[in-house]
Amino acid sequence: MAVIGIDLGSQHTKAVILDGDEIAGGASLSTGETAETEARMAAKEALQQAGIEREDLTGAVVTGALSTPVTAAVSDSAIQQRSEASCIATGAHFKFPEARTVLYVGCDSSMALRLSEDGQVEESVRNERCAVSSGALLDIVSRMLEIPIEEMGPMSLESTTPQTVTSRCVVFAEGEILGFINSNPPASFPDVLAGVNQCIADGLWGMVQRVGVPGELLLCGGVARNAGFVKAMEDHLGRPALVPKQPQYVRALGAAVFAQGIGKNGQNGGA
């Protein structure tokens, strides 16, 4: 029984095909003005990876930061919606049932959740105001240093003397980083990047502490692909964290897990 979960992120639109307990396909595209076109294209690419047709899907759920109708991306029938928090928790529990705390870090927002043993949300804290505690700062630094996002994590691990970014405002943080670059002698890029990752981790660790860490901590969202950020969070935690192989798909995966329930109950048959 194949189902689809679609995550409408502010920067990227993701689609995941779930067939039983196996992820059969996944795709991520940059979000455009409405996300409708990207949802359709991401769904098409994920279906091609899975080797199935749209008509074979038995359930579909959409979630994410954008409120966009994406019915045409999958079928002519209504697609169910689920909250971001519930999909993050469900996707995390599906991959790592031992996780009791989840930190999701996206481009524009972040969320910390404490889960029960069966994966239900017991408490959550969301950040949407402070760009320093999200991937937005990484995007700014990537453009500033002209370093691709995917290279920033590995490069930061080469740091020998990390710089310290003290500001919790992204504008002032940007000024501090410019100061590091323009100092005499200038700070190395690895040292600057290590400082940026530490700054993001420092802000997010407070959110994690607010919900508590009664067991394993799972890091997900696109920023969790950054090895330097993961290391900075693990330094706070004092032990390794759980990180999915493709952490950017966790929210879409959670939507797909919800879609399985819809398909089994026959509420969205023929989707």
Mean pLDDT: 89
CATH topology of the largest domain: Nucleotidyltransferase, domain 5
Estimated radius of gyration: 19 Å
Element string (H = helix, E = strand): EEEHEHEHEEEHHHHEHH
Number of helices: 9
What would a concise description of this structure say?
With 271 residues, this protein is α/β, with parallel strands linked by helices. It has nine helices and nine strands.
Can you walk through the features of this model?
41% of the residues lie in helices and 21% in strands. β4, α2 (71-74) and β5 (80-81) form a beta-alpha-beta unit. The chain starts with a strand and ends in a 6-residue tail after the last helix. Residues 267-271 have low confidence and may be disordered. The chain is α/β, with parallel strands linked by helices. The longest helix has 23 residues, at 189-211. The chain folds into 2 domains: 1-84 and 250-271, Nucleotidyltransferase, domain 5, CATH 3.30.420.40; 97-243, 2-Layer Sandwich (Nucleotidyltransferase, domain 5). The strands form 2 sheets. It has a 5-stranded mixed sheet. The chain has a 4-stranded mixed sheet with strand order 8-7-6-9. The radius of gyration is 19 Å and the shape is globular. It is built from 9 helices and 9 strands.
What layout of secondary structure does this protein have?
Blueprint (H helix, E strand, L loop, with lengths): L1 E7 L3 E8 L2 E9 L5 H15 L9 E5 L6 H4 L5 E2 L2 H12 L3 E7 L4 E6 L5 E7 L8 H10 L3 H8 L13 H13 L6 H23 L4 E5 L6 H11 L12 H16 L6
Parallel strand pairs: 1-4, 4-5, 6-9
Antiparallel strand pairs: 1-2, 2-3, 6-7, 7-8
Helix pairs in contact: 3-9, 4-6, 4-7, 5-7, 7-8
